[in-house]
Amino acid sequence: MSQKIAIIAGAGPAGLTAAYELLKRTDIHPIVCESTDAIGGIAQTYNYKGNRIDIGGHRFFSKSDRVMKWWFNILPRQGKPAADTVEKNHEIEYVAEAIVEYLCPAYAKASVGMPECSSAPAKRPAPDPEIEDDVMLQRPRVSRIFYRKSFFPYPIGITLTVAKRLGFFNTALIGCSYIWRHAFPLKDETYLDAFYKNRFGDRLYRTFFEAYTEKVWGVPCGQIRADWGAQRVKGLSLKRAVIHAVKDLLSSDFKKQQEQRETSLITRFFYPKFGPGQMWETVTKQLLACGGEVRMHTRVSGVHMKDGKVFAATLENAVTGESEQVACDYFFSTMPIKHLFGMMHPRPDGRVLEVAEGLQYRDFLTVGLLLKKLHVQEKGKKPQSDVPDNWIYIQEGGVRVGRVQVFNNWSPYMVSDRKNTIWIGLEYFVNEGGDLWIMEDKNLIELGISEMEKIAMIKREDVIDGCVLRMPKAYPAYIGSYTQLPVVREYVEKIPNLFLIGRNGMHRYNNQDHSMLTAMFAVDNIVSGRTDKANLWEVNLDDEYHEEKKS
Ligand SMILES: Cc1cc2nc3c(=O)[nH]c(=O)nc-3n(C[C@H](O)[C@H](O)[C@H](O)COP(=O)(O)OP(=O)(O)OC[C@H]3O[C@@H](n4cnc5c(N)ncnc54)[C@H](O)[C@@H]3O)c2cc1C
């Protein structure tokens, strides 16, 4: 009998996890098709002249042990300080040893010089990031809001410093508005404005949430469904933020508290030495060494069905334009639902297509700036040439930049000359085809420089170089036909060998861990013979994943 084949559209976290799990646990041959020249999808890391840049910063944090172990198996946790640990006084939890299980003996032998047949779990000393590259760093999380030339903590909490910066009268009004809303909550929390007001009060919502959220989505908060807010600030409220701040003051036992904390309040996270892309490039190396296929510049452009099952896909070479039909036994899709349904043969019925076509997205653009130094002019303080933040929310009016990433603080190894340069990413939430999307790169770089000067964070003469990265469909939007998504789900449920996984694949605001879990659960189902896909859709609905709850 010939070997079964799975075609996987997309070499992002979900697609690569599916391929890895298939190769490890089944006899199915995975063929990953990636339309671009980059591994990692939205979680890729772009290397610009030795300076590495992410699409947004990607924290590696998960409440799923299965995912955390998976990550540490690919890139083990650090056992020694990183290049900047001592000078920045970072408190890091080192581990003594790594337990590593390679996908196959061939990879272990070729890449890590281990003796043959050593893909079984093996203990070895935890890596030193100054010597080895395959290492996961632990990094402190600092992210603040820049508003009216002052920094405020993110997530926002009302502390004495915050009250001073906002003004005591204003803070009193914020407190009153919170108490009022607590006493008279809005009953209908369908949309984001009501969701935030009920948790933070109307005045704090207007100060810190409204403008930024509208920048992200490009529509008023009253039109965005609350699900997005719910996933972003899971379980967080003003009351909890204050309790958290007090607890932090009273205790330094980070580890015990970490598990109990809300996602938005995590104060440390993991991050690969060379950014998230390194995780996915390493996974790809293992896949290739162990018999999997990853075809770059290969766009899936047709999905063919017969007798209620997918039997083949058309794979198109994005460089030559040549295409071929490849037979398959399973098809995994991480591509936008909209695209998948548009390329299915025969075409799904009208109602399903209408919902798929009505899904909307928000696109993302990063301007990378290499600087000699920062020049952050905080109210009442001397200009600062450096900041501790991983990222900063820009709440200042009159500029379109939404967030600033400081890659030196994600990992010192992201920057080629970290001692003499600062490498930042200015994030713009845009629409594909809109004015910023079509703007020439040099003009975007110019816009970034002038906006950063305007909000008093840099000086033009300190700019050394710049680059631009565009990421279409970075955010599946909870507007448009999103509420009718169950129609799509029902349709897919009837096709046993078609799996929608990942972020755009399921049109859900999934982080890497959620995206990976959907892939893992899909493979679990194949292995166990489970035919329904309910467990995939349960991922990221609440904090515990149902499969794990049971075990
Ligand atoms: C700004 C931002 C910040 C984020 N921060 C974090 C974070 O801190 N932590 C975290 O865990 N997650 C974070 N995420 C989420 C994370 O990026 C996603 O969960 C993850 O990348 C989704 O993986 P995926 O494989 O489902 O999809 P994607 O990463 O979107 O990958 C899909 C791949 O499919 C390819 N593709 C599409 N169509 C086709 C086709 N027809 N044929 C072949 N290939 C195709 C694409 O080119 C892409 O490479 C962030 C996302 C954004 C936008």
Features:
551 residues, alpha/beta, 4 domains, 19 helices, 22% strand, binds flavin-adenine dinucleotide
Description of the molecule:
The protein folds into 4 domains: 5-37 and 285-359 and 481-550, FAD/NAD(P)-binding domain; 48-141, no CATH class; 158-250, no CATH class; 361-476, Polyamine Oxidase, Chain A, domain 2, CATH 3.90.660. The strands form 6 sheets. It has a 7-stranded mixed sheet with strand order 9-8-18-19-20-17-21. A 5-stranded parallel sheet has the order 11-2-1-15-22, with helices on one face. Residues 252-264 and 543-551 have low confidence and may be disordered. Helix 1 links the parallel strand 1 and strand 2. Helix 1 (13-25) packs parallel to helix 17 and helix 6 runs antiparallel to helix 7. It is of the alpha/beta class. The two termini are 35 Å apart. 34% of the residues lie in helices and 22% in strands. The protein has 19 helices and 22 strands. Bound molecules: flavin-adenine dinucleotide. Residues 9-15, 33-36, 41-43, 55-59, 299-300, 334-335, 339, 364, 474-475, 502-505, 510-513, 515 line the site of flavin-adenine dinucleotide.
Which class of secondary structure composition applies to the elements?
A: alpha/beta
Helix fraction, binned, reads: 25-40%
Overall number of domains: 4
CATH classification class of the largest domain: Alpha Beta
CATH architecture name of the largest domain: 3-Layer(bba) Sandwich
Rg estimate, integer Å: 24 Å
Gross morphology:
globular
Q: What fraction strand?
A: 15-25%
The overall strand count is: 22
Low-pLDDT stretches: 252-264, 543-551
